Amino acid sequence: MTHDQKQNQQSQYKLSRSETQHGKDGQHHLIKGEKGSVRLWHNEEPSANSDTTLHSHAYETLGYVVSGRMELVLSGQTIALEAGDSYCVPSGAEHRFHILETLTAVETTTPSAF
């Protein structure tokens, strides 16, 4: 076992792209720390299935749109997001996403989403 692999599942020091796991919605789980995690939505295509239903989580999400466009519906507002925009979804807030153009986004969650 390498030094990088010695850290327990609660927190990781390093995780190579080839070692990442996919979440149920297609996201890449990049790395997990003691208090949060980072995930990547890579080249997500707009489609009839790209809309999520209104839902909430027990974690806060901070995100950055690397490329593409999407809408975030949060607290009754529709927020247009494009490359270079950041967003925050508070813990417990009902929200949904709608991908408008092939999307790559990076998100951190606290506590960890995985």
UniProtKB/TrEMBL annotation:
Domain called Cupin type-2: residue spans: 51-100
Region ranges (Disordered): 1-53
SUPFAM superfamilies listed in its UniProt record: RmlC-like cupins
Biased composition (Basic and acidic residues): 16-45
Protein name in the entry: Cupin domain-containing protein
A Pfam family annotated for this UniProt entry: Cupin_2
Domain of life of the native organism: Bacteria
UniProt organism field: Deinococcus detaillensis
InterPro entries found in the cross-reference section: Cupin_2 (IPR013096), RmlC-like_jellyroll (IPR014710), RmlC_Cupin_sf (IPR011051)
Gene3D superfamilies for the chain: Jelly Rolls
